[in-house]
Amino acid sequence: MTESINPLGTKHHHNRGLAEGSWKGMKKYLEQDMLCNALKGRVVYDFTWNPRYGAYSCVFAVSLDGVLIKKFGLAYAWKRLSEQGFQLQYVSDVRRILMADRKEYTDEEFSNALRDYRNQRIGLSIASDNPIIRMLAIVDRRIGKRTLERLKDEILNQPEWLKPLYVERMKAEGVLKEGEQR
Is 181 within the bounds of a domain? Predict the structure, then answer.
């Protein structure tokens, strides 16, 4: 079993929760340390948890200019996937559906993606098959204008929920003109 620190900052010995550090530290890392200057104050990462419902109520959320981009949580993913026609009986059923075949992800998948993003080179992150890792990478300060120029044609290949982050990052850096969506 892995030891990690959950989003509330307390240690636990199982595979749920934030990959490294407290949520307060991760939020600072994502919004201040690693976020590109052009999007500081515009991209916000949040975490909510209702102790009454336990681990199944953990939800990470990402917003751009106050508009929700994506939520990541097991109960949320379960509900949305069920509404989309997926047959789910057990928690493990959500994990069995390939990421490429769905639009909803769990808090555990967000945590794992965050861990992977933090522990690999930015070039691997921006080219990852995992859209959550790409989400973290596209707003990363280490992605430069030349890389963004190369990624312009990739916008259309991104999941719908991820496209706004690509577009806004490229507009903020002058790679896309205002009104240009690709």
Answer: no
